[in-house]
Amino acid sequence: MMSIRLTHEPAGPRMRAGSSLKRLALGAGVLLGLSAAPALAQDYPEMEMKFGHPYAESHPLAQGAQMFADKIAERTDGKIKINVFPNNTIGSSRDLVEAIQIGVVDFALVPTTNVASFYPPLDIFYLPFIFRDSAHAYAVSDGPVGQKLYADMLEKTGIRTLAMFESGFRTITTANTKVEEPEDMEGIKFRVVNNPLNVATFKALGANPTPMAISEVFTGLQQGTVDGQDNPIGNVKAFGFDTVQKNITLSNHQWAGIMFLADDKMWGGLPEHVKTLFSDTAQETQEWERKELNKVEGAYLSEMEADGMTVTRLTPEQTAAFQKAMEPVWDEYRDKIGAELIQSVVDTK
Q: What is the CATH number of the domain that holds 252?
């Protein structure tokens, strides 16, 4: 939880009543210049804060969170210290959302699908195949549709969204079955995110979906509790799933947006220049994280392939078959999410 100590400087001497108009004008110019200038390190209060996330430290998401903390420390001359807790150290994704709400954690990175348990309209981000590509996903998450969702979520939950990182498009991995068409998923014990929409997505393919926290997935795959799972390439590599799975299919069935969240009660008590610092730095690290993730995905995939993992790249016809198989999920969630919201995402350029 944030701790804060504010210090106040004594007021300077008053200007003599007989000061000339020239001095008044000069003083006004100086004041205007100061108000427009960025805050100096000595202007920041001393604060210590918590930032939690579920990602392994080698992942660009974890590196982005640490970069945010490092930049804040640098720009405030160490006055604002943000302690980053990676890899589920202080709780799972759901735990972190709850911790944000009660003020135990100040910042968190959490997938949209986990936050949707607290604010259901976010299920829009995981509706299968709703995003054409990364550019479309960014246009939605960063543009009017996303901003309207974040504002409504803030009002209803007290959770503020500072940025949207990403872990990329999700893939399907399995122990033994090479997945090339929907029928290949029939009967597979398959780990999914603990969200009804994700369960429905893989039920539509005939799999046997099993909700499980990401921290439990490696052991579940290793011990055969589940035979497969879906995650973006970066997660497959960072969490070591490639060492206990033989096959990966680049299905790209969902885009995994990762929300950079903040406790709004904490936020409300911050000086305006600190809010600006946090907002600007979050956006800066968002841009870095997206570029870094897209850069390393290709390297990760090459490494996995070189280590013997079978990589299946779907043809347009095969992708269309998966889209067709998942259409019942759209039918089920059209009213729950809202037909108007769905259409606004589809129409976003």
A: 3.40.190.170
